[in-house]
Amino acid sequence: MSAAPKPIVLWAVPRSRSTAFLRIMLERGDLEVLHEPFSYLQADGHFEVAGRRVTSPTALLDAILELNAGGRRVFVKETSDYTYTPLLQDERLYTEVVNTFMIREPGAAISSHYAMNPGATLDEYGFEYLHVIFDAVRSATGEIPLVIDGDDLVSSPEATVRAYCERVGLAFKPEALRWDPGRRANWRRTDRWHAEVARSSGLEARTPQRRETPDTNPHLRRVAQYHQPFYDALARHRLAG
C-alpha cells in the first residue's frame, strides 16, 4: 500500500491573490482545504481541525498530518505577516509537507495591503519573512521550492494552475477555475480581506482601484524599497506557465 501524498502548504505574501488560489483548490472538491490555520492560531490562540481544537504549532501540524492520512489530501494556504518560529524548527515541515510559495509585485501588493491595514508594520508586508521561510525549506530539503506569482495567476490562470498542479502531484481540473460567488465560513474572521474573491466567479483582471501607492506615498515607497530585494530573490525561481 503506497503512502498518502504529502499535504501541500502555499506560503503567500499578503495581498498576493492567494485567497483566489485557495478558492480554486476549494472548487476542486477533492481536497481538505485549510485557510490560514497558523495565522489564526497566532491571533486567537487556538484553531480547529476536523473538530479537534489545537493550541500549539506542533499540535496543529500533528492534526494536519493526521487529517491528510485520512483519505483526502490537505491543502493549506498561509500568509507571511506573522512569524512561525516553532513551526520552522519542526523538521516534519520539511520532510512530510510539500511547501510552495506565492509572490506578487511589491508595489501592487503593498498598495492593496495598505488600503486594508494602514497601520501595518514593515514586517507585516511579509516579503522578507516569506524569503526566510523559502530559505529554510531550501536549506532543509536541498531543493528549490515551487514559486508562483499572483499576477501570472490572473494573466495566465490555466497555464499557472496546470503547472502548479503538475509540480505538486494534483490532477488539473479546469472546471475549478470558475465558481459561484459568495463568502466562505472558514474565512469569516478575516472576511473583509476577501471581499473581492467573494464577489468573483473566477480569475480576471480588474480595473485598479484608486489607492495610495509607492509612487504617491513616501512611506509606501520606503516599504517597497525595503521589500523589493526579497521579492526579486523569490521571483528568480518563479514558475513559468
TrEMBL record:
InterPro entries: P-loop_NTPase, Pyrrolopyrazine_biosynth_F. This is Sulfotransferase family protein. Residues 198-218 are annotated as: Disordered. It comes from the Bacteria. PANTHER family: SULFOTRANSFERASE DOMAIN-CONTAINING PROTEIN.
